[in-house]
Amino acid sequence: MHRQLLDLVVCPGCLPEERPLAAHIQETRQGDIYTATLTCPGCRKNYPIDHGMACLLPQSDLALVGKYTELPVVSAYLWSHFADLFDDPDQNTAYLSWSSMLNASSGVALDTGCAVGRLTFELARNAELAVGIDRSHAFIQTARLLTREGRLSFDLIMEGELTEHREVRLPHDWPLNRVEFVLADALALPFPKSVFQCSSSLNLLDKLPAPLKHLDELNRVTSDTRAQLLVADPWSWSTEIAPKTAWLGGVPSGSFAGHAHINVRHLLENKLLPAWKILDEGTIQWTIRNHRNHFERIHSDYLLAQR
Ligand SMILES: C[S@@+](CC[C@H](N)C(=O)[O-])C[C@H]1O[C@@H](n2cnc3c(N)ncnc32)[C@H](O)[C@@H]1O
After folding, report:
1. Sheet harboring 22-29: ordered strands across?
2. Interhelix angle for 71-82 vs 137-149, to 10°?
3. What DSSP element (H or E) covers 6?
């Protein structure tokens, strides 16, 4: 883990109390923390850093199991995020479009639900440090491997069990020393108030059991001034993930009746303080590739806000 993060992390289990963690460092490699235990002086909970990866989940059993940890899904997300880097004919430019909206120059940037990290890498090109967080061990491990090696080979599914080899090579001018990926929960961000100049949540809100709590958390950790926030989502609400009462839209009545992009805009402008001003909004298409002949085209509404 990047040393700079040591000054930025707090105990996710003690929130809303923001308690800095004490580090017992056992091993460092090339200036980064490789093996350590971070301990909360309040609740005494320990958070491990193992092989450089910090696990800052409020409970260690919160690491995702299922869909976002399976190899075909990791492969599908590597394709979604990096297909332009290996010149795939079906590549899409969604992450470039989203990253071009944000500029974290001279600040620290946060990408929540970062998956295999494309937006985090893009944010690092302007930021002092870009931090990607996700609850999937497989995604964070993959993003960290890419950061360390600058390249990664994987098997892309063609049909059934048939795969083809692909290699992601990150461009040489990407500042990989300004990127960090940690295991953390978007509902209990292990950071203190106002540390990020720029924050993002792409395609995550509808995957959370408490989406409003995530917006509160994003609002808490993002700076009160000269800050940017990018929220994008296709609003694929499902009772398998969140009860209807927690949805931010997609229902005919209740506090979040109607469409979520309107309700989230209202929250940003009127409820989350200090209030956000919407700079831009629209829809961006992105693609999940399941195999050679099967692509899911997703339209995500985005809101770009500043304060
Ligand atoms: C639909 S994917 C979107 C990934 C990426 N932001 C993108 O747009 O390509 C949802 C991501 O959220 C992550 N996720 C789900 N629940 C989470 C939570 N509570 N905290 C952090 N990440 C979470 C998943 O592991 C997955 O990477």
Report:
1. 22-29, 32-39, 46-50, 53-54
2. 50
3. helix 3-6
Question: Which tens digit of pLDDT belongs to each residue from 183-237?
Answer: 999 999 999 999 999 999 999 999 999 999 999 999 999 999 999 999 999 999 9
Q: Would you state the structure tokens that stand for residue 22, as one six-digit string? A: 């004490």
d(CA 179, CA 147): 7
Which residue(s) pair with 201 in the sheet? 112, 231
Domain map (residue ranges) of the chain: 1-56, 58-306
pLDDT tens profile 241-281:
999 999 999 999 999 999 999 999 999 999 999 999 999 99
Q: Whose CA is nearest to atom 4 of ligand 1?
A: 115
248-254's contacts with Cβ under 8 Å and 24+ in sequence apart are 248/205, 248/211, 248/212
> Which residues sit opposite 109 in a β-bridge?
130, 198
Amino acid identity of 58? P
3-class secondary structure, 105: strand
Nearest to 2 by CA among 124, 96, 85: 124
Integer CA distances (angstroms), 124 to 104, 108, 130, 131, 176, in order: 8, 9, 5, 8, 8
Of 79, 139, 142, 204, the residue with max ligand 1 atoms within 8 A of its CB, to mutate for a pocket test, comes to 204
Backbone angle region of 35, left / alpha / beta, with phi > 0 → left and psi within -120 to 50 → alpha: beta
Task: Mention the CATH class of domain 58-306.
Answer: alpha beta
CA of 134 to the centre of ligand 1 (A): 6
Is residue 134 within 6 Å of ligand 1 at its C-beta?
Answer: yes
Mean pLDDT, all residues of the chain: 95
User: Which residue from 119, 135, 141, 299 has its CB within 8 A of the most atoms of ligand 1, so it is best to mutate?
Assistant: 135
Per-residue pLDDT reduced to its tens digit, 129-175: 999 999 999 999 999 999 999 999 999 999 999 999 999 999 999 99
Look up residue 56 and give its two tokens: 């800052």
The answer to whether 33 and 23 are in contact (CB under 8 A) is yes
